Every structure is written in structure tokens, then in C-alpha cells.
Amino acid sequence: MLPIQIDESTTRGDVVEFGGGRLARAPGEATVADAMVQRPKLLPSTATVLDVRDFFRDDHVHAALVVDGDRLLAVVEPDDLESDDLESDDLEAGEDGPARTMGTLLGRTVAPYADLWTIWRWMTSHGRRRMAVIEDGHCVGLLCLKRSGRGFCSDAGVRARALTR
């Protein structure tokens, strides 16, 4: 995954926006649950690699959440589909292979009660734009860092963007 480029002038003052206009200026002011998209797009456990490739045709999609019911099985990112480290079974399965084998949960999930400020700082320093929000293994949302790195997408913003397509 390519690191996100964050203009230093956009982060001056160390303020992060969430919830469609609320601001956090320090740790302890908000949780991940306050900023997450509560109805992320999900792919079923039967999704194939081809389904994920189609999913990524939308330039706003940076992570595919593969679920069985509401249990998160994998978070697949575009680079996962291009990896040279794929196991031979994955290569043999090709485009019809199961998407859930292409991703991971390691480093791609966060709890809803985690401190938003801390997670924002971690995401920006590690070039991470999306993190699945899970509680007891169940997908409860998606934390979506805006391209600017200054804040998080909201449910209202996601709905509005969908209507303009």
C-alpha cells in the first residue's frame, strides 16, 4: 500500500474532523465509534477475487470487508490482489478463488471504544486509509480516513457521494 501524502499545512494545529464536522484536538475527546461509518459496504463470504476487483473499480473503495453474516473474515486491500507473496493455492484459484483468502485482519482492525486521536495518529503515520471496526469478531463499522488525512468520512458524506454518481 502506498503511503498517503499529507500536506503539513493541513495537519497544523493537530485537529481531526469526525462525525460530519465535530473536531478532536487531543486524546480522550472521541472514540472510533464516534467517527466510523456505521453501514459500510460488505462482501459475503462467497465473494470471489473477481468480485473484489470489481468492488475496487470505485475509486473511493480502498478496502473490501468480507463477512460471514456480520463476522469479519478478512479485510482485502488492492495491493493484496497484486502481491507476489500469494500462496500457490491462491494462484491456482485465480479470479474465481475465494476473496477471503486474499486479505487479513492483522493491522486492519480496531475496536469501537479505541481512542480516535490515537488511531488517527497511527493511521496517518502508517499510511492506512481504512480500518474495519470490530467488536467480538463482528463487523460494526469502517473507519475511513479522508484523502487529506485531516478527518474521517461520515455516513452522511458516503450517502451524499453515492447519490451524485
Description:
There is one protein chain. With 165 residues, the protein is α/β, with parallel strands linked by helices. It has helices at 8-11, 32-35, 49-55, 88-93, 116-126, 155-163; strands spanning 16-18, 22-24, 42-44, 64-68, 71-76, 109-110, 130-135, 138-144. The strands form 3 sheets. A 3-stranded mixed beta sheet has the order 3-4-5, covered by helices on one side. A hairpin with a 2-residue loop joins strand 4 and strand 5. It is globular and about 45 Å long. The two termini are 26 Å apart. The model is unreliable at 1-12 and 88-92 (pLDDT under 50).
Biggest sheet, open or closed, and with what strands and sense?
A: 3 strands, mixed
Total beta strand runs? 8
Class computed from helices, strands and strand pairing: alpha/beta
Beta-strand percentage range: 15-25%
Radius of gyration: 16 Å
Let me know the average pLDDT.
85
- H and E string: HEEHEHEEHEHEEH
The percentage helix is: 10-25%
Global outline? globular
CA distance, first residue to last residue? 26 Å
Q: What is the tally of helical segments?
A: 6
Strand order of the largest sheet: 3-4-5
Low-pLDDT stretches are 1-12, 88-92
